[in-house]
Amino acid sequence: MNALSAYIEHNSRELPRKTLKAGLWMDESFDWYSEEDMMSHPEGGVRTLLQSFTKQKIMYSKFTIKNTTLEVKSPKVFFQYENAFERQAVAFYSPHEQAIMHVAPNSVALLGGVMKGKGIAQYCIQGKGGLYENGCFKSLREGLLFYSPLAKGQVTSIFTLESEILPLECVEVVAWAIHADTKEEAQFLNRELFQAIQKEF
Fold first, then answer.
1. Which of 32, 151, 154, 178 is the most buried (most CB within 10 A)?
2. Which residues of 25-57 are buried (b: 16+ CB within 10 A; e: fewer)?
3. Are the beta carbons of 92 and 125 closer than 8 angstroms?
4. CB 78 within 8 A of CB 23
């Protein structure tokens, strides 16, 4: 049995005002993906597939990257989370959970992910106004985000999962957004999901 099956509901639809968008940076170029998207890198050396699912309180994205070359690749997979229902949230990175927390008066969202056993590498948490005015990239060419670990109001969070991919290697990158009533519930689900994915991959 697939260890992730408890968290995935196939053929389900994402909640319309809560989004977890994915993008790929590699070799100094960056593109956002649409849901259920398949793409080849311009040089044809890397192929990717994005799949999105929602199961109860968890939005889930699985990004498959296949290195078809004989060279080591160093992609960075970006995820952007927005929740239009969160008007007065406080969002911050939690080192203990290796996750980003969005804490609103009536809800909690926890963002996390794994790539080859590694959690979040970079993160940029901004109010929507700051994001649209300043952007999120410190250097698009290098795939570097502005360092911004805390924001409040209507918040957007962007984070990366990063690792080298060996020649001819295929890697599964997994990210999630957990929606819960309490911080404790979100943290529990995060630990369970992290452990399930570690066993799977």
1. 178
2. bbeeeeeebeeeeeeebeeebbebebbbbbbeb
3. yes
4. yes
Q: Whole-model pTM?
A: 0.84
- pLDDT of res. 43: 56
Q: Is domain 5-200 classified as CATH 2.70.98.40?
A: yes
Residues of the chain with pLDDT under 50: 1-16
Give pLDDT, residue 101. 95
CB 138: neighbour CB atoms within 10 A?
Answer: 14
Strand partners, 162: 76
- Whole-angstrom distance, CA of residue 98 vs CA of residue 114: 10
Contacts of 31 by beta carbon, 8 Å cutoff, 6+ apart: 23, 24, 39
Burial of 16 (0-12, 13-18, 19+ CB in 10 A): exposed
What pLDDT score does 42 carry? 55
Token digits of residue 131: 């994001």
> What gap in Å lies between CA 79 and CA 70, rounded to an integer?
27
Q: Which of 50, 17, 46 is nearest to 29 (CA)?
A: 46
In the chain, where are the structural domains located?
Answer: 5-200
* Phi, psi at 49, each rounded to 5°: -140, 130
Residue closest to 25 by CA, chosen among 168, 111, 142: 142
Q: Which run of H or of E encompasses 198?
A: helix 183-200
